[in-house]
Amino acid sequence: MPATPSTASLQVFSRTLSGLVAKAAPGIVAIHSHRSRASGFVWRPGLIVTPHEALAEEGEITVALPDGETLPVTLAGRDPTTDVALLRVDRMDLQPVSLAAEPVAAGSIAIVVGAQEGAPTAAFGVVSLSGSEWRSLRGGEIDARIELDLSLRRSAEGGLVLDPGGQAFGMAVFGPRRRVLVIPSATIDRVAARLETHGRIPRGYLGLALRTVPIEEAGVGAMVLGVEAGGPGAAAGVRQGDVILAWNGDPIRSVRTLLKALGPDSVTTIVRLSLKRAGEPVELSLTVGERPEA
């Protein structure tokens, strides 16, 4: 029976999708860590990106290549705040993927290409939300809020997200209640580059224990409950009982907001603190330190 125009169109559409998956598959690998299965992709020669949350905290990590070969990898670094981990593999001939930074609109078709035991997997859906930059619950700076409406198998977390033209615009990860989020290309490139060089993402550090408190002027401040000996706060002259009223001239809104300002770019910067000490105003300069590794 000859194909009708509608079925012919569906066949073309189907072949197009499978072609996009096949084109992306050589750069996708399956990630195996202790009791965990996920996907990842070749970011640069010898380097693979995968979600931090999908990796076990310890133990051996291996990757299954598209041809089925299994190789050991080492952890180059991981950033819990942006859910990006970087792995090193002793194979420089693996095909890196090309990440696009173009914005994606809500309603656009999205295809997630993952891997399972070396074989490609695919999930099909739409971009349900495309918003501006945001901070994760752990304080990571994500360049765009992108959510997908599709069903994703656990082993496909870390897969590459493609637009209808086959351009990769990010990595698929699970958010709260298994909502599928996208870590966009710009975030991946920024974080992975730092992990390749430093092995970790530095975070600002004050060496202060703080609590949000109301102040007489109908606002809030950050009361200093403790000062770590030898920390940046102690070096600046901050004392227990001080109340921080402003940070570089901006009124304190909450301790949580203040701590969110301590991103990677804050390390070594000098900030002006406006305090109230025993009812008297005090101005101090504090050099933000780098948070020690746990």
UniProtKB/TrEMBL annotation:
It holds the Pfam family PDZ_2. SMART domains: PDZ. Keywords: Hydrolase, Protease, Serine protease. It comes from the Bacteria. Gene3D superfamilies: 2.30.42.10, 2.40.10.120. InterPro entries: PDZ, PDZ_sf, Peptidase_S1_PA, Peptidase_S1C. One of its GO terms (biological process) is protein quality control for misfolded or incompletely synthesized proteins. One of its GO terms (molecular function) is serine-type endopeptidase activity. Belongs to the peptidase S1C family. PANTHER family: SERINE PROTEASE FAMILY S1C HTRA-RELATED (PTHR22939), SERINE PROTEASE HTRA2, MITOCHONDRIAL (PTHR22939:SF129). This is Serine protease. The lineage of its organism: Bacteria, Pseudomonadati, Pseudomonadota, Alphaproteobacteria, Rhodospirillales.
